[in-house]
Amino acid sequence: MQNNFFDTRIEFLKGVGAARALLLNTELQIFTYSDLIQYYPFRYEDRTKFYRIFDLYEGMDAAQIKGRLHFFEKIGEGHKARLTGQFSDGTGTMELTWFQGVSFLEKKLRAGAEYVIYGKPAFFQGRPQMQHPEMELLSPDNEKGGYFQPVYGLTEKLKKRYVDSKVIATMQRNLLDLAYAQIRETLPENLRQKYRLVSKRDAVYNIHLPQSEAWLHQARRRLKFEELFYNQLRLIKQKLSRRIDYQGQVFKNTSLVSEFYKNHLPFDLTNAQKRVVKEIFEDMKSGKQMNRLLQGDVGSGKTIVAFICMLLAISNGCQACIIAPTEILADQHYQGLKEFAESLGVKIDKLTGSVRKKARTSIHEGLLDGSLKILVGTHAILEDIVQFQNLGFVVIDEQHRFGVAQRAKLWEKNSEIHPHILVMTATPIPRTLAMTLYGDLDVSVIDELPKGRKPIKTVHRYDSHRLNVFGFMRDEIKKGRQVYVVYPLIEESEKMDFKFLTDGYESIVRAFPEYHISIVHGKMKAADKDFEMQRFIKKETQIMVATTVIEVGVNVPNASIMVIESAERFGLAQLHQLRGRVGRGAEQSYCILMTDVKLSKDTRTRIDTMVRTTDGFEIADVDLQLRGPGDLSGTQQSGVVELLIADLAKDGEILRVARECAIAILEEDHELELPQNAMIKEQVENQKANTSNWARIS
């Protein structure tokens, strides 16, 4: 839809002007006709039906009524002033009230005139009333109703400057008068017919000025399909291009892998782990550079899968590294893999910010001469001084903690032939989000817990149950178990009545004088944090009081209880991550969610979901519904685009169809050279190209 007409600056549109244009620029990032026409409504008010006052009922979202404003009066002065009016339609009478814009409305309203009003009805002592209704004088244009009023997103500054949703709707109407003939088609006729999609012109017109509910449905469907189709086309094209353009080292020797399986693997892999190892091996043997995402719930055994794949690289004369976001997690990986590596005669070392200079020198030498085969570390691995002889395999753990530029540095650690990349996450990603965040990656999923693990029992308790919870903790500690108690805050907040860490620590000390207690939070020095963690790991302390610093990377199989204080303060993904810190051993584990009695609807949904299921993917889907994709994606990822109309929480089926369509087209015509794809190719070339193609890195 980009051409010279749509590049016209917004100030030249009737009803805008320089002052309003500046507001639209700064508040909504609308600069051109193109920006405005693609600023879609987020909902619609149904003005197709009129209600009678007699028919109003408690709980109605909104109602449109025709009637007469008999009188109105101002009550009070200054900022306490309000305006009240009496409105009737022959079936009943209702009170109208305004607390804002009183002086303006006093001059505008006409007693005795007929109006169409719209707003949310409420009842007081059985009598209907409406606060801040929209008021329009009854006219031939509005007395029949029959339309949907678009509602656009606004900012407080726009509202204060009297740019409301109706003003933007008027701008859209003025623009569509000029633009309708200029809107060009962006999907080929064969695709439109196959998926029964309306034209681009009709879609754009009806998204802003829907002629009916059916037209609105078709407009939404068409624009969502197009947006998701081109999003998927770009990602899949990047994936196919990478397979063609980027060669990978070929790993066929499996000697170390065979020895590990035969003599050193202490347990049987789950079927899911075996499947994932096979998928990764096929990539690493293919001659194409691997870029794979490994999803697996907390405790599903991703690290051992990564280690087996490292052995494949080492068997073929290469080195491997695993990078983690925190020293705690890096140390856990190092300690967990060291025994396995040394049993095979594979040299392994750890590089973090706290490693001393002398040890660093030895590590650098071992990497350069090839004797050091596996390096485990944090961001310290990214430093330019860290050079490998032949890096063949890179594992990035909790990859959402790393920016794309940081990941690019790992890619460049082997300039001859780029290493195979495996990015891992313990945060389950909903299917629709994975398609857009990681649509250019191959995805493997470990969807099975190791044998012998018992599902964690999760319960919800109110603060008034605290003594019972303490009693349960004491019973578990007597059995030799350990307990986490997690708080959302470090210091007291005057605005929020939540338990905070230091107060919580003191109350735990008072309640459990017979036991030793550790405390860990983000403001502690790394050495102090590590000291407290080690005390807990060695069972020198029975209770660990902490903030979410333990969310990632703490593995204490003996810990069987996770108490999460003020659980209403945490998102679902974070609650699930924290719960995953227990249930690491063979004993039954518990997660206790402590909250205040007063909970919002969304919070109650989060808590109920946690109690009902331990399935990370089901939890992720609920989280997507509650929070939307923007909050879930975290650091900007390769496939993330700012979707203008599609909703990943609701449009999973449209996304699936759009993706299948894009795959089918590109598999037949990767370069979009066939005549039937000319329109698609033109649209792809017109879309703004990314300044950097981070997709090849993940």
TrEMBL record:
It catalyses: ATP + H2O = ADP + phosphate + H(+); Couples ATP hydrolysis with the unwinding of duplex DNA by translocating in the 3'-5' direction. It comes from the Bacteria. Residues 283-446 form the Helicase ATP-binding domain. Signal peptide: none annotated. Pfam families: DEAD, Helicase_C, RecG_dom3_C, RecG_wedge. Its EC number is 5.6.2.4. NCBIfam families: PRK10917.1-3, PRK10917.2-2, recG. This is ATP-dependent DNA helicase RecG. It comes from Arcicella rigui.
